[in-house]
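Handout, page 2. Input:
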Amino acid sequence: MIDILGYILQQWTTGRKTSVTSKGWHSGNAVCCTHRGETQDTRGRAGIIITGNELVYSCFNCNFKTRITVGHSFNSNNRNFLNWIGIDDIQISKLQWESIKQRSVESSLMEHIKHEPLSFSDVELPKSAQLITDSDTKYIDYIESRGLKYTDYPYYITPKGMGRYRNRIIIPYTHQDKLVGYTSRFIDNRKPKYINNQQVGYVFGFDLQHPDWDYAILTEGILDAISINGLALTHNEIGDQQYQLLKTLNRTIICVPDQDKSGMRLIEQALDYGFNVSIPEWDTGIKDINDAVKKYGKVYTLMKILKSSTHNIIRVTMAKKALERKLRI
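Output:
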């Protein structure tokens, strides 16, 4: 029986200057950056770690990440990474066949190991925060400009705050009905637009999900999630702890990236994690779910997302390339 992950690690370290961190990462110069239109890494900003029956490669230069699990077939990111570290297509096919053969009782058990549930600390809103009411027209006008209603979610405001804080809408983060953080969305057209108070591993929108739903829609932005009762990362990368939390939903996760350059990277990561990906063909000028809801309405937007949803790598790759042409990336 071939030690698949050990073999890959050996290929990574052979002929390459690497070091081992205290957490077990084998770090070295990244092999992915130049293949993704970025500059060559010369600062050892990539690494490999093996945990159980999984190997993770992560690059902090171009943010490429891929996960290889014994017992699973290789996806396109897996194959690209293996090519980049010097493993040819013939050997990759042999490794994949060996991986599938090792889909044993041990592998199955590893896949179903119970992870310690994430817990989040209680957080308090700013003392000056007050629940928005129908008389707070300045804030309501902004919410309605995003195609939403101020009654869709318990928004808070701080009209008596200092400086910019008079011009913010607070969106509370809850998990299992407990307040665990919040984001401030400023409406004064200055940057930063958002300031997040977010705990590691948190995914917005768990309390918006119904237990009898077969799928959950994962977005980047918090207003995208509120628009369709979805989930939000609040950034364009899926953290490992966020992934573990998402798995506890036990349903199909449909990742809908923003239709811009950063969204392209989220597509690759979603495929690595085994999520479905949906890249609807929106009209020009529509970048995200909230834009789509403003133009088409909630029902039509959801229908387009579901129709475009797939875990077929070929279909996702074709849709991604079509989008790249549209964006001229």
